[in-house]
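Table 4 source record.
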Amino acid sequence: MRLDGRVAIVTGGSRGIGKATCIALAREGAKVVVVGRNEAMCEAVVSEIIATGGSAMAVRADVSNEADVASMVGATMERFKRIDILVNNAAVNLPYKTVADLTLDDWNRIVSVNLTGTFLCCRAVVPVMTAQGYGKIINLSSRGGRQGEAGRSPYRSTKAAVIIFTECLAAEVKEHRIDVNAVCPGAVKTDMMREITNGHVPSYAMPPEDIASVVVFLASDESGAITGTSIDAFGEGNPLFRAKSYLAPGSR
């Protein structure tokens, strides 16, 4: 198993990409800390992992709350004594809403979870990983972090910022053997996708397990040559596959 003996924290771990990632990491031998605001849902993921022979614990935390993040790290260290992997997956979004219609509360909530939460979790684990001389941090950005779109300004702004934050942190901690990378998923079949699209999930949307596989690779020693990088994982939603060719059939 690629992650035998490693300890992983996954925020937003109770559903969607986070849940799939928790299960995938545990399957590879990691001890997993399932973090989310709904403790019962986190416990359900833990039960699923334990039922298949894995090791996991649930921690209720809001990543935008500094005290919650400190408690999350403290609980992990008390139970497992180390932190090898951090997956910053927790995120919130809104249905289509123009800049003119956004409230300050709308904006602040998305920034506080998607960007500030990523910062707080990274800041909390870096001292632990530095002392160990080893760590893997994987931040979930988005295809939306690569390009703007009408009605999506707060979410896409935070996901673009996560890419730059990832590069900055990677440059700061490389000397301590801490790798920091981001994953930019395309459309994924998750509850969040259903919520923001009123159930109109694109036919090309990927299962969460496809993204979890990318995260597991970045969490493993196989990715040792990769840091400060954002990996696009668009699946069949890649614009390359959906764009109409300007060439006529049979032409070159």
